[in-house]
Design brief:
Layout: E1 3-9, E2 13-20, E3 25-33, H1 40-55, E4 62-69, E5 75-80, H2 84-97, E6 100-106, H3 112-121, E7 125-128, H4 138-148, E8 156-158, H5 165-174, E9 179-181, H6 195-212, H7 216-219, E10 227-228, H8 229-242, E11 253-258, E12 263-268, E13 279-281, E14 288-293, H9 302-309, H10 311-321, H11 326-329, H12 332-341, H13 350-371, E15 374-380, E16 383-389, E17 398-402, H14 404-408, H15 412-417, E18 435-439, H16 444-450, H17 455-464, E19 466-469
Parallel strand pairs: 1-4, 4-10, 5-6, 5-7, 7-8, 8-9, 11-17, 13-16, 17-18
Antiparallel strand pairs: 1-2, 2-3, 11-12, 12-14, 15-16, 18-19
Helix pairs in contact: 4-5, 8-16, 10-13, 16-17
């Protein structure tokens, strides 16, 4: 056997997946609660023990090992730009595309109160942008001075106006900050270049965040550096959509990834106006994009979802899919409160399972609406004009659900339906009639990891374990 092991140190569970590369088969999967507050290696050892017991795999059978991590909140960033619709959005694209979770984002000039907010968020990296090359210098220099005088201790990555980069770096270093620089994410208006920033963000993650999360001991166990889990998921999405030189992909897609702490949306699709007369506004949308909804996790944020939509809405959702006696068997208020305090909880009844589906479906609907673009009608002296902001996902061919809910839950079509175009909200450019699949073995992240060295095999395995779902 040629066994390869992929590990995800998640916010709730540490998951291990084993595949036989020669036969291109899944040969084992196990998980254990993540033990980041004690020693993350404890959870890893327990998950590996379960894997070995269930599958018969021995440690000496393993030919290669890879890992990703979102433990303790993953890679947390603050993004700072100039104009919110331009450099700030470019900064967010860079952060999200590198697998980060953007905890806070600011445009224009900072002040001491905002610096204090960034300090309280305990970010892992601050991404400082602002101005096109040769354009506005004042704002990024002002913001550098504010950050230099703050108590922020995390690395600061400067990716703004190159004409000001040297002075910005000097200001920050004078304030005792650790500074990295990369090419401007918005060198000219309407041109986004985030590749250099994303590569450096991943390097900072490896050199700083791994130590901060207590993963340095675990890192020695693996063949490659540990990467952010969202990066692995994004690699899997791009691989599935576009394929490799030797293996065809499945085409444009949307991946909805439901977790205990966040709901992440990945899309691989070219942007296009909805009609020939529609005017597309804002920055160009990348083919591969990602958003993270940190308020939509179905465990850590179960209470937030309840407060956001209300118990009545969740009840209606659950009743539509299962269990007519649900309201008498479950107190939605108490249940969501309990979940937020017991993030590893597993449903113990069909009523609780229905509630989990209601939480997942609600979070997916909100997250996809935030990810997708939208239209806005305006009347001008020339007549009626339709403006399009963001990414048009109406024609996306495929939608894929991944995460624990899609492996262990029921009525999964109800969760995926929430991601579809809604005639009641015609302005939201969500997918219209895609083919639907479920990652029922929860291995997409693993195939993203495996694709670092074996893209053809990873793609064939990923396609093999996608289960079609009728919506």
């Amino acid at each position: 056997m040629s066994i390869y092991l992929m590990v995800d140190f998640g916010s709730t569970y540490t998951k291990v997946t084993a595949v036989d590369l020669e036969r291109e088969l899944l040969v084992g999967r196990a998980q254990s609660p993540t033990t980041v507050e004690i020693d993350i290696n404890i959870g890893l050892r327990l998950a590996l023990q379960e894997l070995y017991t269930q599958s018969g795999i021995r440690a000496e059978d393993i030919a290669g090992k890879y890992a990703c991590s979102s433990a303790a909140g993953g890679l947390k960033m603050a993004a700072i730009g100039l104009v919110p619709d331009l450099t700030l959005k470019a900064a967010q694209m860079a952060a999200l595309g590198a697998g980060a979770k953007v905890l806070c984002a600011y445009g224009y000039e900072l002040d001491s109160d905002i610096a204090l907010e960034i300090e309280k968020n305990q970010c892992d990296i601050v991404l400082l942008c602002g101005g096109t090359d040769g354009g506005n210098k004042q704002v990024i220099l002002h913001n550098a001075e504010i950050l230099a005088n703050s108590k922020i201790t995390c690395p600061i990555l400067v990716c703004g106006n190159r004409s000001a980069a040297q002075k910005v770096t000097a200001l920050l270093e004078t304030g005792g900050k650790q500074v990295y620089t990369a090419a401007n994410v918005l060198p000219t208006v309407n041109r986004v270049e985030v590749g250099a920033a994303q590569a450096l963000i991943r390097e900072i993650f490896i050199s700083h965040i791994i130590q901060a999360k207590g993963l340095s001991q675990a890192e020695a166990f693996f063949e490659r550096p540990i990467i952010p889990t969202p990066s692995a998921s994004m690699e899997a999405a791009a691989l599935l959509a576009d394929g490799t030189r030797h293996e065809q992909g499945i085409g444009d897609l949307l991946v909805v990834e439901v977790g205990g702490a966040t709901t992440n949306i990945h899309s691989v699709a070219n942007n296009a106006p909805i009609t020939s007369t529609t005017l597309v506004k804002g920055l160009p949308e990348p083919r591969l994009s990602r958003t993270v909804e940190g308020d939509m996790g179905i465990r850590y944020n179960a209470r937030t979802i309840f407060d956001f939509v209300g118990g009545e809405t969740l009840c209606e959702y659950a009743l539509a899919i299962d269990h007519p006696l649900l309201p008498t068997l479950l107190d939605f208020d108490l249940y969501t409160l309990m979940l937020s305090k017991n993030v590893g909880y597993v449903p113990q009844s069909s009523a609780e399972s229905a509630m989990d589906i209601a939480l997942a479906g609600t979070s997916v609907g909100i997250a996809v609406e935030r990810h997708a673009g939208y239209t806005q009608n305006e009347f001008t002296t020339s007549g009626h004009v339709t403006l399009q902001y963001g990414k048009n996902l109406l024609g996306v061919k495929n939608i894929i659900g991944t995460g624990g809910i899609f492996k262990y839950g029921n009525h999964l079509e109800a969760v995926l339906k929430s991601a579809l175009f809604d005639a009641a909200k015609p302005w939201s450019l969500k997918p219209n009639q895609p083919c639907a699949y479920v990652d029922h073995e929860y291995i997409l992240y693993a195939m993203g990891l495996l694709s670092q060295d074996y893209p053809d095999q990873a793609l064939r395995i990923a396609k093999k374990y996608l289960r079609p779902v009728e919506l």
